[in-house]
Design brief:
Elements lengths: L3 E8 L14 H18 L3 E5 L3 E6 L5 H21 L3 H25 L3 E7 L5 E7 L4 H30 L25 H4 L9 H4 L2 H4 L2 H5 L11 H35 L21
Antiparallel strand pairs: 1-5, 2-3, 3-4, 4-5
Helix pairs in contact: 2-3, 4-9
Length: 292
Amino acid sequence: MADSAGRGTGVGEGLAPPQAHGLLSAEERKNLLARRVFELTRENRATLRSQGDVEAVLVRGKPTNHLLMFVTLACIMAVAALGGRVLGDLGAGALAAILLGGLFALIWLAIALTGGEEIERLSIDQRGVVASVKSGRSVDARGDFIRIVAPSAVLLVCAFLVVSLARDIVNPPPPNCGVGSAAMKDTDGCGSLPNLGTLLGTPKPSGSPAASGSPAASGSPAASGSSASGESKGWTVGNEKLVERLVRSLQLLFVMVVAVAAGVFLWMMLAGEWVVGIRPVRRRPGDEWDRP
């Protein structure tokens, strides 16, 4: 992914001279070179910069437009700060401008480090052998960078989620019961899902105000969750804790599956293994990039 000079020198790539012995004429060498240039510009999407009878220069990639990136960064920060001013919270606007600007600056840095032009110089000798010399920024640098950074970022996010979910499972926070009134602080009723007890078939004493399902008849939210005789409490705080712990456990399982998939993908990229047609970062000995 770094700049290099004179890398990737290849001799006789894909072309064989029409004559096994002897030298080629100038016209034959010119035709062979033109054929090679056509193949490279068609298959590898290179741009022809110059071409002579026995030499040609191809260019791949584009240089980073730093002026455009700077203007975009300034606009993002200005819009974020203006949004905070319109909403009447200058602190939040400044924080949003810093966060968004920092995120875009990281993207700008990645583009600057992995972008640029790759120049390939072709030449053909009198025997019809085409030599290729590449210099500048490799066009594969940005793709290799993404193949490494993307799964690494996923692993970092998954690690944070695993720690957070495991902590909440071991030491669960207060359940989301909507207990805000003084009348419910001394009860075990959970008001976040008041009808779940009925849906689950929780027994209700017949003739009680809670069985009618009318909040007005019960007189308070606590009365709707439990009967006057104490035979049924409906949906309780313990039930809510159990459901929240189950949900967090399922979330933890999903995050671990994603983390394992990202780790395997990163390992295969670094080990030189192809993943569903995605080219690895490292090339194994004897491996070629010409397969899908």
